[in-house]
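Quick one:
INPUT:
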């Protein structure tokens, strides 16, 4: 909470309360006929009586000498200035901000909601993908080996294995969490890219007659493998 205090003026001892940094103030007035020896109460800081016009102020429902109402850290006089109350102690704005956690991205104090990931604090607007800069507040995310934040799509695009045929990353389709990667001859394939190099038949170990029959590093179906073997055999026979 941010507050503003004013010194006593005439017969008033007043304090202005600012509920929010840019909010409207509400004035609390204590009426007392002024006399030179009129005491406003005991100063919370020094324990002495607050006596005389223009010598005191109220803040946090307590009475202070104006000279005693200072920042608990830097001792800046706070009469007429914004201040923060923390554990019933007054702080100037700069010292209060120094008590707050700082965003690990922009290094500025976090005044409102804190997001935490990998043990670090973030402003919600600073918690973004390192690749596309999309906000990840409330969105699934992941991290790489160096703890950099990624959205799921960019993580897959960056780190997923790439298909030997189309060179694109093998990653889940939008809205899905998993995908299938075919591995053959120490190479990776999309399911639809795993085809016979000669006839284009989509291969699958689960379909009858569509298994892979590799030859000299080539991905082939059974029929095309047989044709190549026959061609090689015929050439060898002819050469003899």
């Amino acid at each position: 909470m941010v507050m503003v205090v004013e010194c006593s003026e005439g017969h008033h001892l007043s304090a202005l309360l600012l509920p929010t940094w840019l909010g409207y103030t509400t004035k609390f007035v204590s009426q007392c006929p002024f006399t030179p020896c009129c005491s406003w109460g005991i100063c919370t800081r020094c324990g002495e009586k607050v006596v005389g016009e223009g010598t005191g102020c109220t803040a946090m429902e307590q009475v202070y000498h104006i000279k005693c109402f200072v920042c608990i850290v830097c001792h800046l006089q706070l009469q007429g200035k914004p201040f923060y109350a923390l554990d019933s102690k007054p702080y100037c704005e700069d010292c209060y901000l120094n008590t707050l956690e700082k965003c690990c991205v922009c290094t500025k104090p976090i005044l409102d909601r804190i997001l935490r990931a990998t043990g670090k604090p973030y402003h919600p607007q600073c918690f973004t993908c390192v690749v596309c800069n999309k906000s990840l507040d409330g969105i699934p995310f992941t991290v790489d080996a160096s703890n950099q934040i990624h959205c799921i799509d960019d993580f897959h695009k960056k780190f997923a294995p790439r298909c030997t045929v189309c060179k694109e990353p093998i990653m889940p389709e939008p809205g899905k969490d998993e995908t299938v990667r075919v591995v053959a001859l120490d190479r990776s394939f999309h399911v639809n890219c795993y085809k016979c190099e000669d006839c284009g038949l989509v291969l699958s170990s689960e379909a009858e007659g569509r298994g892979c029959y590799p030859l000299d590093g080539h991905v082939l179906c059974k029929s095309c493998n047989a044709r190549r073997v026959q061609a090689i055999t015929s050439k060898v026979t002819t050469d003899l």
